[in-house]
Amino acid sequence: MVMACRVINKRRHMGLQQLSSFAGTGRTFLGPVKSSKFIIDEECHESVLISSTIRLLESLDLTSAVGQLLNEAVQAQNNTYKTGTSTLLFLVGAWSSAAEECLHLGVPISVIVSVMSEGLNSCIKEVVSLQVPIYNVFDHLDSTKTFSGLETFNISLCPFLQIPSDTGLQKERDLNDVASPSLTTYSLSGIPVKSPKLFRRQTEVEADKNTLQNPQTLKNSLLASSHYRKSILIHSRHFNRTANNQWINKPDGFLEQHGAATPNTYRCNDLVELEMGLSHGDHNSMKLVDEAVRLQYQNASIQQGNCTMPFRFDISRIFTCCLPGVPETFSCVCPGFITVVSISNTTLIKELENQPVRVILIEGDLTENYRHLGFNKATNINTLLESMKIQQNSSEEVWTNYVLQVLIKFNVNLVLVQGNVSEHLIERCIHSKRLVIGSVNSTVMQAFAEASGAVQVTYITQVNENCVGNGIYVAFWRSIPSDVIDRINVITIVIKTEGINLVTVVLTSPVTAQMQTKEDRFWTCAYRLYHALREQKVFLGGGAVEFLCLSHLQILAGQSLSKRNHVCSGWLHNTSSWLASSLALYRPTVLNCLANGWHRYLSTLMYNTACCSSEFEASTFIQQHLQNARDSGSPSSYILNEYSKLNSGIFNPSISNKLEQIPSIYDIIIPKIEAWRRALDLVLLVLQTDSEIITGLGHTQLNSHETEGFLFL
Amino acid sequence: MSRLEAKKPSLCKSEPLTSERVRATLCVLKGILTSSYGPSGRLKQVHSGFGGCVCTTSQSSALLSNLPVTHPILKILTTSMQNHVSCFRDCGLFTAILCCNLIENVQRTGLTPTTVTKLNQHLLSLCTSYLKSESCGCRILVDFSSPQTLLCLVRSIVTSKPACMLTREERDHLSALILRAFLLTIPENTKDRLILGNSIIVPLKGQRVLDSSVLPGILIEMSEIQLMKILPIKKSEAFKVALFCASLSGDFSDTGEGTMVVTYGVSLENAVLEQLLSLGRQLVSDHVDLVVCQKVIHPSLKQFLSMHRVIAIDRVGVALMEPLSKVTGTQPIGSIGSISPSSYGSVKDLCPAKFGFKHFLHLIPYEATICSLLLCNRNDTAWDELKTCNEPESILKDDGCTQTELQLSTEAFCSALESVAGSLEHDGGEVLTDMKYGHFWSAHAEAPSIVNWPDLLSRCGCGLYNSQEELHWSFLKSTRHPFVPQTYLPHEATGSADNLTLDCFTAKLSGLQVAVETANLILDLSYVIEDKN
Questions:
Q1: Where would a tag sit more exposed on chain B, N or C end, judged by fewer CB atoms within 10 A?
Q2: Which of residues 313 through 352 in chain B touch A, CB cutoff 8 A?
Q3: Please, which residues 228-257 of chain B have a Cβ atom closer than 8 Å to chain A?
Q4: Is the pLDDT of residue A577 over 80?
Q5: How many angstroms separate the CA of residue A191 from the nearest CA in chain B?
Q6: pLDDT for the residue A440
Q7: What helix, strand, coil percent values describe chain A, rounded to 5?
């Protein structure tokens, strides 16, 4: 074994360069409008369509040390919050360039580390002023408005940055755009007034779905997915003119103005508004989330009766069922468990329909050879056969017969299995009018266990009367017209029982390659809402938070260090070092570099959302705002002011009617801040690394050109 | 057909230290170690080069164990350093760097190895006796009635690991937690001998550092579904516990070699299961409330136990076995044959707990010295770096102060210590020492030669003295006049400064000894004999 050691930052910091180049690949995923990417494997000529950071990293070759650290950081963010990975990836890139610039300017590494972490922490404290509390959003759930009834404007993707300063021509341009009729022409005309009831019967849903099938919708979605940047993007697909204006004028609207002297306070007490704000332009997915939450809420209030336990959105009880090849408009949300089974089950389902059946739940595989985890099979046991007569049935047959006997004995017609099921058994069960479904998600199993009283078992031998659940209904799921579903050659069934805490979201997409993306986007929206409800507060979104960070850092950089001397030196690990005294010298430089990272973030965001035709244009636009914020004396109240103007439409009465409908954009707090912290941590970790130690690598395994720069032990 | 091959002759090299290659590798190793030293030390990415995990670290324990060095001399060095680290968990880099420096410097002097080893030994005894003496200026007694000094020690250790990526707030929080965990392991009723309990580190990766916490008792991690199955837990005065280290999975993996022949119709699996169920019946009749198994419990046995309202938890892992047995007072049961009633133990209470996205069953003992330290960090790298626990008795203040002071002993030996002190500086600054206390000061490299030092310097390395006292400085590594470091009054001094940088006394002292002795050993080597077969 030979250890090789390589010094990685002699003149230029290789680690930081690698980080910024990796991060550059995810630039277009920042913001609400994500351009998809094709990733092509040159060896086997396979390609995948991706549009999220996490899928991008899955497909990239990240075997280098830095690449793995990056992947680790993104995975950790994704596993914990399921959101914020694009922000993380982008900031890693922006800040590694910033750190590299500091190195070029001769700033000592320790100073970069301490000032950057101080700067970010200061930002995190500062943005608390942009938090919006969420109050009792479920109190108003009975109201008539539903998510799908909202008229939405694309401009809301980035509202803060859209509204320019009070002076200047740009304002007029933007406002004209807002007011221009072109934005509203895509409304679907002639849609009947939506039923105010939240839970309509299936037939009504179908009626709606049919009317939504409109070529315009498809056209819009095409526009959205292409690199369409020239003008403001118009891609909202759920226009419904009939329902507008109902919700804005509610007396308990979230926006309150406390006279001229005090700043405006925001609060959010309306679920639909919150969802709109968190949808970040993906109204389709958020509409499904909204319906799922409402179903859960309804179920919870029925189950509880008069008990006033506060409702908690339980994201683990939402299940997605993907149907590729079905038009997008058939995506919907239903209570119970919807799944796909093979056509051969058709007659069986017909017979099971309209009667309660009994169910057992099997945790492992339902095969003869399956043994529970941790069971080691002895390999050296031979079975001695005494006579030839018992060879008639194979052991598989014996086992299958036994399983059937148990099912018959306990009168079980439905078996849900978490793992695989023996094909032979499935066939035999179909003949004896019993449905066996394999690969069932564990939370689905849990939901059925709770609702039906069944107890999950590992082996069929464990089944006794206590393990069997009652009152399950199996039926064809006919929300999608049969001609559509026949085309994809499966049948969809719904399994449910009274009070089951399980909601299935059926996701459809005519393009199979987009299925994964659709599912990812749904979960992103669902988790955003989940985190927001859990934290009971959100940030003002649309770049407001990042803008505040940017202007705050610039102000910090401009301040002299003297009055905060003791505060800052605390960031250096050892206060006695000479670095502490030279901190004042380098501090503005480092803070400005960090601020530049935010600047790049904002301009890329604007460029991606097609607010600006070039990043340069976006950059000058941000500069202008920054100047205004600085002049106003308090950046946070400047931002709040701009926001309230946007929402109340006070500054131009003629367009107030339209502007009122621009909802606020919200961001979730902790996942966002944690993404920032993770990004900076990663950059600083790589910055502080000076050598790479490769263990277990022989001389021979390094190519001659690679050997350069390596030292061997 | 067997084939015999002549043995290769052993390879013998004389004077291994004179070889150019050994010198070069020693130099590389020293470079790696010195650049990692101290709170602003540079990090190293250690990985296999074939993918797999990347360890970013500046800790001696991680570095030394991951360096697969080839040369026997380097092996001696790394092994002896690893031994020191495994005993004291601290001062590993100090020891290793000092050792490397000693070897290098002595080679330069050209003295014979015997003279050098004797001299080193003598100097070492001078140093240790000075450090142990009352007049030693760098010793602080720990006052166990106030946490301040202990907290400083823990904080110093946590601070010296830059790869943890902690902010000051997080660092303070974590230091306090580690100290609390340490204090929880001290038994309330001490008899003649103090036996410390242990704290179990429960990983919670991906969470915020500030969410870390310390709980008395043991946390057993389990999935939400598993936890739902054992809820609600019936209330009782005490829970009778049976702890199994044998597998209850119902397999028969110990059939030995050869083949076993079984008559058709006989099921070994069923026979073992029947045995397990009779064990279950015994547990139920003994009124056991909680069955914990290191390995797997057969689902049927689990089902049987839960039908009789006995909580069964399996797959707790070997690491938890000793603490579990301590907390509950059980004897781990190693066979499924029969159980003696004396092996049962008990816990005061059981409750479900949720931290982050993980679910736990919390075992609350009557009185025990076991606690669980829930350690959170944003990423794996930083989490792996967070592993420090100490047993401080007497504390040595540090950050170069000691080294600079020690070096006043004698010349040959001292430049080695000097370099250790000097290697705390990674950004090209200048290191100074004062002529009154002999402490460590740091300054900007490009400082003008005539300068008002008190204005430029603020505090010494350990934070005990500030520059406003009337002191004189000289550059480290320059010629200087010998002086006797002044002692101070510990209480006044420690009282005035609340942010000292401290080191564990025993660890540092042992580090010094190990370094000198290892260096002596290596210097004394005259032949390396390698068996090439």
A1: N
A2: 314-315
A3: 228-229, 247, 249-253, 255, 257
A4: no
A5: 44
A6: 93
A7: 55, 15, 35
SS3 string, A147-202, reads: HHHCCCCHHHHCHHHHCCCCCCHHHHHHHHHHHCHHHCCCCCCCCCCCCCCCCCCH
- Give the mutation candidate from B56, B230, B293 for the A interface (greatest A CB count, under 10 A): B56
Average pLDDT, integer, range A387-400: 71
What average pLDDT does range A519-535 have in this prediction? 92
Chain A residues whose beta carbon lies within 8 Å of the beta carbon of residue B264: 383-386, 390
In the block, tokens 């498809």 appear at: A218
The answer to whether the beta carbons of residues B127 and B407 sit under 8 Å apart is no
CA A615 – CA A677 distance, rounded (Å): 25
A442: closest chain B residue by CA: B225
Q: Residue B428 pLDDT more than 80?
A: no
pLDDT: which is higher, A580 or A87: A87
Residue of B nearest to A63 (CA): B51
Quick check: B35 and A375 CB within 8 A?
no
Which residue in B182, B161, B250, B214 sits closest to B374, CA to CA?
Answer: B214
Nearest residue of A to residue B307, measured between CA atoms: A466
Averaged pLDDT, A672-684: 91
Global pTM?
Answer: 0.79
- pLDDT value of residue A459: 92
Q: How many CB atoms lie within 10 A of CB A310?
A: 7
Point out the residue among A113, A384, A690 whose CB comes nearest to the CB of B264.
A384
Residues of B in contact with A457 (CB under 8 A): 299, 303
Cβ <8 Å between B49 and A696: yes
Cis check: omega of the bond before B232, within 30 degrees of 0? yes
Chain segment A637-650, per-residue pLDDT in tens: 888 877 766 554 33
User: What phi and psi values does residue A48 have, to the nearest 5 degrees?
Assistant: -125, 150
Residue A213 phi/psi, 5-degree rounding, is: -75, 100
Residue of A nearest to B24 (CA): A713
Residues of B in contact with A674 (CB under 8 A): 208, 378
Is the CB of residue B192 less than 8 Å from the CB of residue B204?
Answer: no
The Cα of B407 is separated from the nearest Cα of chain A by a number of Å equal to: 20
Strand pairing report for B502-504 and B394-397: antiparallel
Identify whether the C-beta of residue B269 lies closer than 8 Å to the C-beta of residue B250: yes
- pLDDT, one tens digit per residue, over B479-498 is 444 444 444 444 444 444 44
How far is residue B64 from each of residues A300, B41, B90, B513, measured CA to CA in Å? 57, 16, 13, 18
Using DSSP's 3-state secondary structure scheme, residue B73 falls into helix
Average pLDDT score over residue span A578-605: 85
Mutation target to probe the A interface, by most A beta carbons within 10 A, among B29, B55, B379, B432 is B379
Q: What is the mean pLDDT of chain A?
A: 74
pLDDT at A175: 32
Q: Quickly tell me which residue has 């608390």 as its tokens.
A: A128
Q: Are strands A357-362 and A414-417 parallel, antiparallel or unpaired?
A: parallel
Give the least confident one: A101-105, B125-129, B283-287: B125-129
User: Could you report the per-residue pLDDT of A183-196, keeping only the tens digit for each?
Assistant: 222 222 233 323 22
The confidence band for B195, taking pLDDT boundaries of 50, 70 and 90, is low
Does residue B287 come out as left (phi exceeding 0), alpha (psi in the -120 to 50 range) or beta?
left
- The single-letter DSSP state of residue A41 is E
Q: Name the most confidently modeled range: A314-318, A540-544, B148-152, B523-527.
A: A314-318
Nearest to B432 by CA among A109, A570, A578: A578
